[in-house]
Amino acid sequence: MGTTDTSRPNLDSILNERKKFDETKAGVKGLVDADLVDIIDDKDPSIHQGTVDRIKEACETWGFFQVVNHGIPLSVLEELKDGVKSSPALNWRDTFSCYLAPETPKPQDFPLICRNILLEYGKHMMNLGTLLFELMSQALGLNPNHLKDMDCAEGLIALCHYYPPCPQPELTLGTTKHSDNDFLTVLLQDHIGGLQVLHQDKWIDITPVPGALIVNVGDLLQLITNDRFKSVEHRVLANHVGPRISVACFFCSDYRSSSKLYGPMKELLSEDNPPKYRETTIADYIAYFAAKGLDGTSALTHYKI
């Protein structure tokens, strides 16, 4: 007959304790769960204010959050991922990029396999971006149109990423550590995952949520909010499984034709909160970001006062 090993903890007891801990919303799991934001258009002021408050907390502490009930049909998200999957990969990550606003390209300029869906997705994304900037303006205590009037949602660039399976993922990364050189990024990722964000010096896995979109603050939004909102550093791990598909949409002004200067917003400054950054054009910032490369350091440091 066998004997009972009384020195080994009871598995059911361990699982129950873990479940209780998760339900307290403490620790990393709770923090990630708390950043799932429902932004469906609801006219109830109390619900709306709760959404604004959650976005405010996420932008100030995490620099990212996930949104559900965003108004984009699930069929559109799935069709877009299928379109990006169509091309064979040459490296560990292939990328197809295009401008979707302010000037929408001619349909014939897109690959046939993703032509219609990209144009449709761009329209949905502009509507979502406008809503997000309204909520963020309110989270800063400003008029809902404030960030939109600064042309933060004028330009939109889509980067469609294809990450093939990697036989030795421990030797490489899908995308190295970086923050984004825009005001705001909205990311669609498939079920495979691999995205990590850096929070309090720890890499946190962002588990895919079906139908959800990931939103993260970019460098330029951190600059104009004078560090109120945080641009989050993130990376993508390589994976044995694949291919991994993601589509990142970058909101920025049309830097190709604009000489407008951007600096910390005067509405947020005070004697106790002086400007922390010098003014820059978007073109200058993007040029510096590109020249520096994804070397693991922030381009914002270059613009510190």
From TrEMBL:
<dbReference type="InterPro" id="IPR044861">
    <property type="entry name" value="IPNS-like_FE2OG_OXY"/>
</dbReference>
<dbReference type="Pfam" id="PF14226">
    <property type="entry name" value="DIOX_N"/>
</dbReference>
<keyword id="KW-0479">Metal-binding</keyword>
<dbReference type="Pfam" id="PF03171">
    <property type="entry name" value="2OG-FeII_Oxy"/>
</dbReference>
<protein>
    <recommendedName>
        <fullName>Fe2OG dioxygenase domain-containing protein</fullName>
    </recommendedName>
</protein>
<dbReference type="GO" id="GO:0046872">
    <property type="term" value="F:metal ion binding"/>
</dbReference>
<dbReference type="InterPro" id="IPR005123">
    <property type="entry name" value="Oxoglu/Fe-dep_dioxygenase_dom"/>
</dbReference>
<comment type="similarity">
    <text>Belongs to the iron/ascorbate-dependent oxidoreductase family.</text>
</comment>
<keyword id="KW-0560">Oxidoreductase</keyword>
<keyword id="KW-0408">Iron</keyword>
<dbReference type="InterPro" id="IPR026992">
    <property type="entry name" value="DIOX_N"/>
</dbReference>
<dbReference type="InterPro" id="IPR027443">
    <property type="entry name" value="IPNS-like_sf"/>
</dbReference>
<dbReference type="GO" id="GO:0051213">
    <property type="term" value="F:dioxygenase activity"/>
</dbReference>
<feature type="domain" description="Fe2OG dioxygenase">
    <location>
        <begin position="152"/>
        <end position="253"/>
    </location>
</feature>
